[in-house]
Amino acid sequence: MSQVSGLLRVGPKLTLADIDPASTPGLPGRKVVRRDPKAWARAELAELGAELARQQEMLFANAKKDRTFRHRVLLVLQAMDCGGKDGTIKKVAGTMNPQGLHIVGFGPPTPLELKHDFLWRIRKAVPSAGLVGVFNRSHYEDVLVVRVRKLVTKRVWLTRYPQINDFELELFESGVTLVKVMLHISYEEQRQRLLARLDDPTKHWKYNPDDVDNRAYWPAYQEAYQDALARCSTDHAPWYVVPADRKWYRDWAVAHLLLDAMSGLNLRYPAADFDPQRERARLEEGTR
Ligand code: AMP
Ligand code: MG
């Protein structure tokens, strides 16, 4: 495991307010990094990305060759509005082969989804063997927005933490490697990003006036995040808080977290189930 994963991992005593969204934990202190951290991290991301792509290909290949292979990876992204979920998907998941990705976003539940328990739509979106899944928001919304905006009673949302832990254990036991990441931005950074969206007509489609209303609930959201992360960061499904005011650090850190999780699977390319020499001979024969 790289140092980054250890530094960002959430323990039961998490205090979100103690984590500076502009900090850069684990960034090497070397001169070349200090001189231009942004350029360094971007270059490093290219290398991490190449290794992510290789890991993803091995995962895909094993599932293709072995019908009993059950491993899959699931990156869960949560953040306040403008937290950078879309950017992270583009930059980090974007380093991998689209064919091996399964990306699903979760908005307000549809009337049909509301007729089922909150994990119903989530279960359907879990990646199958050999794939890297990404959740853009997730079942955690059911203890975040739902709690803060009082969409269900406290009695209901309180029962959801153990339900989530049970569900994630079930996923783990069926071969899912979970990497849960909260992209942690500051109140001021969110304001800047909302302003930037207003300034750019090509970003207006991303601007939602409700996001401004939601800012009034910022402290309640931070409290809900803290509870969710502290209660649901387990050995089989750890949470990580990635300081996300600096986009270059965010991408670099998430790539590290994903790569750590994937290398932990100790994947290899599947061995040939044929004799390459014999196949070569057959092909050469055909050309004569
Ligand atoms: P966006 O990520 O900008 O597309 O927005 C998606 C919206 O869906 C956010 O405002 C979320 O709070 C909302 N949302 C996601 N899941 C739920 C849920 N389970 N209940 C209510 N709102 C949700
Ligand atoms: Mg939004």
Describe the overall structure:
- This protein is 49% helix and 11% strand.
- With 288 residues, it is of the alpha/beta class.
- The chain has a five-stranded parallel β-sheet, sandwiched between helices.
- α3 runs parallel beside α12.
- The termini are far apart.
- The mean pLDDT is 97.
- The structure holds adenosine monophosphate (AMP) and magnesium ion.
- The site of adenosine monophosphate has 9 residues, from α7.
- Magnesium ion is lined by residues 81, 208, 211.
Features:
288 residues; alpha/beta; Rossmann fold; 5-stranded parallel beta sheet; 13 helices; 49% helix; 11% strand; binds adenosine monophosphate; binds magnesium ion
